[in-house]
Input
Amino acid sequence: MNFNEKSAFMEEQARLDEFNRKLEAGEKIEPKDWMPERFRKQLIRMMSQHAHSEIVGMLPEGNWITRAPSLRRKLILLAKVQDEAGHGLYLYSGTETLGVSREQLIEDLHSGRAKYANIFNYPTLTWADIPIIGWLVDGAAIVNQTMLAKSSYGPYARANLRICKEESFHKKQGYEAVALLANGTPEQKKMVQDAVDRWWWPTLMMFGPHDSNSPNSSELINWKVKTKTNDELRQSFVDRTVEEAHAVGLTIPDPDLKFNEEIGHWDFGPIDFDELYRVVNGDGPCNKERLDARRSAWDNGAWVRDAASEYARKQKLRTIKAS
Ligand code: BYC
Output
């Protein structure tokens, strides 16, 4: 090693030591801080998948805005779907701090290269699916994102903190509407139980594969991007949700569900991870419909993006002329 190589190596080592010191001390890594390339890549992967999930997640619910059963429910649903768009924007902005452009991320989604949460590839068949998404899907997201709000990457942690505040309203409105249906007419009870039966297992899949099959977890946990494992979070979701289901007289569609007195947790049956991988890799009930809807929204919105950038260009020219 010559002198230049040796000093470059020592500089790199000093940067890595500082990065590790910050993680160890519980300090956040910020966009201008040095970070290992692999850390940056892992964050881009995870944050962009999260951003895509929020945006694609607007579609199954958006589908019911015109058919909400009352003005109150329509207002709530409109506000919720709009919140999800906002979450996508915080997360795309956060991902851009890592040096990747939003256009590239959107292109990855539209070309089918990027992943997004499995759950949004299932159809919303009846009105009861909307409260169930609020209760189960947003409920699962809160468990996961409360942990991510403590993530070691500053912009991701702050985005999740804000998202969780809104998600907690989403879950509450969902559970309130679920409770109403569960205590309603026999038809309403049947409709909401059918929705629980269809959404329960895909919701458990949202937490990802078991820890023993999760290739990214240990690295993310070492870097404190994730502070809990997929299985720990899934168990915490099951424990709180089973109690909520029983409180309103709903049944969880799992014959193996049983409270384990010894460990103080609910044991549950095996998850069909083949289904998770099938859906994530493009073969779910609605993958094609979701991507088609995203692409056509992007194409139809081209004139808005053009008008906005032309306006910004003219404003800039005016400012230059005035100065
Ligand atoms: N869906 O090594 P693993 C919302 C992939 S939206 C799809 O355990 P990791 C809402 C995984 O990406 C909130 N793919 O990965 C919006 C990886 O593939 P690659 C959505 C999944 O990263 C609108 C491979 O499987 N929340 O709340 O350690 C309306 C191996 O997995 C899934 C987030 O996005 C899945 N479920 O852990 C209503 C949270 N699971 O990339 C509500 C942010 C696994 O290596 N993300 N995969 O090819 C995370 O917390 C983590 O990335 C995961 C996976 C827990 C999802």
Residues 36-295 form a domain with the Ferritin fold (CATH 1.20.1260.10). The CA atoms of residues 110 and 294 lie 7 Å apart. The pocket of benzoyl coenzyme A is lined by residues 45-46, 49-50, 53-54, 57, 84, 115, 117-118, 133, 137-138, 141, 144, 205-209, 214-217, 220, 230, 280 (CB under 6 Å). The chain has one domain: 36-295.
